[in-house]
Amino acid sequence: MTGMERVPMGPPWSVDLIADLHAGVLPPEVAAQLRPRVEADAEAREILQALDATLADLEALPPIPMPDHVAARIDAALAAEARPGIAPVVSLNDARKRRNRRLGMGGAGVLVAAAAAFGIVLAMSPGAQQKSNDTAQPPAATSSGSAQAPPLALKRDELGSAVGEVLKAQNYGPLETSDRLAGCLKGGGITSSGNPLGISPVNLEGRDAVMAILPAGLGQYRLVVLDPDTCGPDKPQGVLADTTIKAR
């Protein structure tokens, strides 16, 4: 801060500026001069009231625990980030603390401002909602990884070498869907909640297969390799490999 910040002229003021004022992120000297002018303007005051109402609604919500599979994926990403040569993270514990801070209520002001401002913009723009409905299209289904790239070639005793690449992917390959994966895991007596941390087609000792990485407790991965041609709810023979390793 230089102490010489200019107070934005208005009205009108942008929704972003009013949201920043509401969230308390403007320099104190700017906020002190801007707030009485904003509150004296009917349209700006309406936006501030909407932000207050949104904040009250969010604060009234009960705590929502993070799903286990989401936490596991974040832990996996942090573990990969903490590996030497990838990023200057001191330790996995420090990275997890940083994750918790980012997911905490410290960013609630920004979230509230964005949520309320978006609703206000739609309300103040005639036809905006209809335009949004007309133009919004569901994203096309895609699979992670290159369809043209050959699958990873693995040996049974070297499955851990593929963890880094498979964690980056969500490519079900010939299994196609998460429901098919769940059926194949059930056939092998393997229980797992949520989506895999990573999944990708592989070649296991000359045999086309699909490798899934599942959460297996703190600091561990369960590596499962499935034969898409033979696996299923009642087909345990479709599990080609199943091992648990420590996350690096």
Count of helical regions = 9
Mean pLDDT: 76
Number of domains: 2
- Helix residue percentage: 40-55%
Strand order of the largest sheet: 1-2-3-4-5
Radius of gyration: 25 Å
| Binned strand content | 5-15%
Give the oligomeric state of the chains in this entry, treating copies of one chain as homo and distinct chains as hetero: single chain
Give, in order, the helices and strands: HHHHHHHEHHEEEE
Q: What shape does the CA trace take?
A: elongated
What's the end-to-end separation, in Å? Answer: 42 Å
How many β-strand stretches?
A: 5
The largest pleated sheet is described as:
5 strands, mixed
Name the structural class.
Answer: alpha+beta
Low-pLDDT stretches: 103-111, 125-132, 139-147
Commentary on this structure:
By secondary structure, this protein is an alpha+beta fold. It folds into 2 domains: 13-127, no CATH class; 152-246, no CATH class. The chain is built from 9 helices and 5 strands. It has helices spanning 15-23, 28-39, 42-60, 68-82, 92-103, 108-124, 128-135, 163-167, 178-187, and strands at 152-154, 198-204, 207-215, 220-226, 239-246. Strands 1-2-3-4-5 form a 5-stranded mixed β-sheet. A hairpin with a 4-residue loop joins strand 3 (207-215) and strand 4 (220-226). Helix 1 (15-23) packs antiparallel against helix 6 and helix 4 packs across helix 5. It is elongated, with a radius of gyration of 25 Å. The chain crosses the membrane at residues 103-124. Residues 129-147 have a biased composition (Polar residues). Residues 129-151 are annotated as: Disordered. This is Anti-sigma-M factor RsmA. Keywords: Membrane, Transmembrane, Transmembrane helix.
